[in-house]
Amino acid sequence: xxxxxxxxxxxxxxxxxxxxxxxxxxxxxxxxxxxxxxxxxxxxxxxxxxxxxxxxxxxxxxxxxxxxxxxxxxxxxxxxxxxxxxxxxxxxxxxxxxxxxxxxxxxxxxxxxxxxxxxxxxxxxxxxxxxxxxxxxxxxxxxxxxxxxxxxxxxxxxxxxxxxxxxxxxxxxxxxxxxxxxxxxxxxxxxxxxxxxxxxxxxxxxxxxxxxxxxxxxxxxxxxxxxxxxxxxxxxxxxxxxxxxxxxxxxxxxxxxxxxxxxxxxxxxxxxxxxxxxxxxxxxxxxxxxxxxxxxxxxxxxxxxxxxxxxxxxxxxxxxxxxxxxxxxxxxxxxxxxxxxxxxxxxxxxxxxxxxxxxxxxxxxxxxxxxxxxxxxxxxxxxxxxxxxxxxxxxxxxxxxxxxxxxxxxxxxxxxxxxxxxxxxxxxxxxxxxxxxxxxxxxxxx
Length: 446
Fold this sequence. Notes:
Elements: E1 5-16, E2 26-34, E3 37-43, H1 44-50, E4 51-66, E5 68-73, H2 89-104, H3 107-123, E6 126-133, H4 136-146, E7 149-156, H5 167-180, E8 187-193, H6 201-214, E9 218-222, H7 226-236, H8 240-246, E10 254-258, H9 264-272, E11 276-279, H10 281-286, H11 294-299, E12 303-306, H12 319-334, H13 342-348, H14 351-356, E13 374-378, H15 390-396, E14 403-408, E15 411-415, E16 418-419, H16 424-438
Parallel strand pairs: 1-4, 5-6, 6-7, 7-8, 9-10, 10-11, 11-12
Antiparallel strand pairs: 1-2, 2-3, 4-13, 13-14, 14-15, 15-16
Helix pairs in contact: 3-4, 3-16, 12-13, 13-15
């Protein structure tokens, strides 16, 4: 008989949903992992003969799947969770969030808020997230320390914040960040013009040039609310998407966030330029911004990924909860209960997110040769009995709170619900200090 191959890790799994090939659930199989990569998916008995693993992990009451990809958020804003609830977008942003940021935004705020978000995301199954904020070097530090994967996009605005003076300043800092992170395999840098209404034609044009020359992704809030469309028609005599097209910003690496106010022409523009949609259903529902026509986009072969947005407008970063909302909302909006079925909803949060971030050759599915970004969901809770269909159970029951293990590039970040790279006690203490600073009269909520 042959000598077993030495490998780092062998996961024996009751159920595996590999995502690719589509609509599959494997039973009693194992995942062989070496040097941070998946080197095989095979029956457990065969794996036991073929491999000698440094560590064997038995996941016998679990569904194992690729780590989730949260394709849009503002991690540091978790420090403002519940700070300004039940308000419409512009009032929420301009009267509450922006003033709070003007007062409190700092490198320390970003480090502590980002760490809080990363901890929440790891515990609910996210292994890769796309972020859009300020003090990006601080974000990169927290991403590195925690071991997660991230597309960090540097925000560009026309107006000053505690982080930058003007559009040129934000762009200058963002390109420096890109240089500093170029050798880091778990980090990508993208540019994020905040929204069509907050960035001038001149700055958008500069970003289009850089995005083209450097093959850098563009991450932008777009068609988020009805007033955004009205104001664009008044100011520019065209819809925001048309303006972005004229300025050269609709590229195959463009990530359009929200997209709730949509006509057939809008869909055609997105399709013809091969842009991606970052769909954030719970934030759109909470701010009453309308519904992204996900099913129509999918029918037009547009890639739709899934994001939570920030905990200041959601108010959680649980992507499993978002998967459920996305599936239910797609059914309601399309009037078809069969649309966005369980497997399709799971793809939005895995391989579609990976595609949107141009990371699909490395993550988003459990395939030989890909990075070992993997989560295990323990499926033995009362609310998950009985189990007929593992994919349905992941999508329609409380899966986020059941995530038990998480690996990124083969490194364990969560073991039996305990964080491996973040100290929970000190995290909660730090967060409480921010709460006292931001809202000192804790007893008197207005």
